[in-house]
Sequence to fold (276 residues):
Amino acid sequence: MAGTALTLVGIGTPALAAAERQVYVAMGDSFSAGSVVLPQSDLFTCARSAINYAALLAKEIKVDELRDVTCGGATTSDFTNPQKGIISGTNPPQYGALSADTTLVTVGIGGNDIGLVGLATSCVNLLPVGASCKAANTAGGVDKYATKIDAFAATYGTVIEQIRQRAPRAEIVMVGYPTGIKPRGCWPLVPVLPQDADYIQANMDRLNARMAEQSAAHGAKYVDIRTPSIGHDACQPIGVKWIEGLIPSVVNNSFAPLHPNAAGLAAVVPSIRKVL
Fold:
């Protein structure tokens, strides 16, 4: 009898398959949703791409169910509250997708909470001389964005604990932000001053560092996207870059400036798989 039972487990019975059902919940903002990267699965509410990293990962690891609630423009407040649609409709609170049977959760969030895209657009200088956004944001010896990021850091820990309460079986994976721009930038291709390019990237790096620290402190895994995306920033040519510039290259089926294109979304998958 014992030998027979062992054989049945080895070949995989229907009961065993049911017990191992894999439910993947993807949460996050536009960098996770793949906003306006074609083809879209939810253009009007969340600008969610059908080929974002959650969709590609779910296919590769063959999950039984994917609940993708990533949404363009999302902040951590949209995890607990409904989010107004980008064009129409309403996205339910992202925490609502979690349940006791959830086995994997990926989270990419924080950029909108501290205003990263707003920082980047405020740094645009169409002439090679002009007011520096770094100078404006560090006047008086206080770095406004560094202060925002450090104050926000504990929210990552709260997010992890809130997920764990709702999905106690789930493996929680926090996904960082990529390299957006190379050192000293590439004016006029991306029209920001060299010192401002470095300031933008420094704040992306700071946010990633706080995410990694909180992940470690709260028992979640952190995925470094910054390192593998070096050399694939918005300054690179079409076919090399994973992040679009201020004028997206529609040949990449991407229409969102300063956001990942299709190649950038696909490139996240191997990094996630390494930590699973």
User: Anything to note?
Assistant: The longest helix spans residues 194-217. Confidence is low (pLDDT under 50) at residues 1-18. The radius of gyration is 20 Å.
